[in-house]
User: What shape does this take?
Amino acid sequence: MSKPFRIKYPVTAFTPEDTSRASEAWGCNCGPGALAAILGLTLDDVRPHIPNFEQRHYTNPSMMESALRSLGVGFRNVDDGHDRTDGILTLPAYGLVRVQWDGPWMRPKPGRERWALMDQYRHTHWIATARLPDMPQPTMTWVFDINFGWTDLDWWADVGVKEITSWYPKATAGVWLPTHRWELIFPGEKGDTTNG
Assistant: This one.
């Protein structure tokens, strides 16, 4: 297995064919895809690091945190006091974002809160975000989505999100908010806490 590294260009170490193969073979989806893309690894490289993925076929925040720790990559929360609902959003300059799709599960009826929480978990998605200083537009935010590969944030938010939300009955078309925003910290970088 290769070591995780900070990518310089919006390319992956895996092809769309690799994604299809991994999806068929072990259920690969958005969590392993975003993790592999942002760390410059293959899908099979990250597979053993996500605990219980093959039994569950999803990646919750605890599983993603364990995978990062297992791969020797730290993270810090990006908390600017804003979420997507107020029109202001700060995404990690280099990291992972867990997305919540909007729909009736976000506004449960009284007494249905527990069931709504389970529905909310079923309507989440992982993406990777990166500002790549070696690119011609170094301040542009790139988004990796397992469904589209690397795209610019504007395209993903305007076109990609609408397509994805169309796959979910009752989802609010094109509406999302981040539940987790993690800036990745590689070994030896300022803020690295992976060794202690």
Q: What stands out?
A: The mean pLDDT is 91. The first helix runs from residue 16 to 26. The two ends are 24 Å apart (CA to CA).
